[in-house]
Amino acid sequence: MSLHESSDPIQPPVAPAPPVIYSTAPPINKVERFRDVIQSVMDIAESGEFPTSNGPVLVYQGNLLQPANQIYPILQESIESQGYTVFLQRKNNRDEILILEGVFQARNIRAPWWFHLGLLLVTMLTTLYTAAMLNGYTVEAIRTAVEQNDRLVLLQMYRSARQFAWPLLLILGVHEMGHYIAARFHNVKVTLPFFIPLPFAGSLGTLGAVIFIKSPFRNRKQLFDVGIAGPLAGLLVALPIFLWGLEQPAANLIPRHWLIAFNRVNVPPLLEFAASFTRTEQQVAALDRSVFYNHPQALAAWFGVLLTSLNLLPMGQFDGGHVAFAVFGRRIAWPLAMGVAISCVLVGLSGLGGYSEAWPIWLIWPVFALLTGLRHPPPHDDITLIGWPRTILGIFTLLLLMSMIVITPFYSTLR
Hints:
Blueprint lengths: L29 H4 L1 H5 L2 E9 L6 E8 L3 H13 L3 E8 L2 E8 L11 H22 L4 H9 L3 H35 L8 E4 L8 E5 L9 H28 L8 H4 L4 E2 L3 H7 L5 H5 L1 H7 L2 H16 L7 H10 L1 H23 L11 H8 L16 H14 L8 E2 L4
Antiparallel strand pairs: 1-2, 2-4, 3-4, 5-6, 7-8
Helix pairs in contact: 4-6, 6-7, 6-12, 7-12, 7-13, 13-14, 13-16, 14-15
């Protein structure tokens, strides 16, 4: 599973060491200190200094004299050089310039390239291990083949397991690299993907991958592009793999570790629609069984779409949270995140109490969102909009979520 790709990129400000002052002249009021530079870009109506949890903040309200995307670089250069951080936002139909003491530092998350490669290799092994069990091999059979170094059996296991493992890891990897490339394009500091192995029977063999954004987002365009690049890149790979997998000869899977609880998958409308171009109506209606038993590549793509839909939930710092804030701003994105979190809790509780077939696991997603804050933090320039092309793409992607998500991913016809 691909967890939310970035934690809050804004670090507590690190104030520069105060200079030694030998003059006995009275100190300059902080608000007045920046008034000249602020007046060059804003018609100031009000100003003042207010306490916050991160220290005192200087606030200037009024009307910007130029577009915010032109003003922000000017203020950033002149103010951050003095050890302060500047934010732009709009409140109560007024433009605001906020200045906070200290410079926001990039997160010190470092790992050598071989560590990322090592995690990928281990994740490949754990995913092959669980995929082999999906194909009917027991834990004992796998352990015996490894201990006896039975190359023939191990090769048979690998050939069956790779049909599920490689497509799944490809989808997850492309998803993360979409984030990574978009971040590098915008000069946002970011880590390479950390793949997460999960060597437990009945699992996928991996929790996906995670990358960390190390520097703050400067504007909504950066936030939007980095947030949406992962899901779209993953879908562009998952959909062709799903259709290709349906065309492969039936593999006759025996998912022993899963059959205890369920024997069908719920196929989301998006995949049913895609399959309708190559499958008959009867075949589309039977996808819930055929994907589960006969087509490991299609099953891997099904998981890829499921994980993408969870990442697109518009709350916190999930991919959907990035997109929702970039498109709608805090006035809509923050209440929307709260509404989605409450809905997840209600759905999970209904399944936990036996009132619906929904999975209780829905209770987990709001917890993940709360780990980094349910309300997405604003970028430094929160005034400049992303433009109509990105807005349309963002709304379309969030609407696409409705065709991808399934409340009950698995179910059983044996009860």
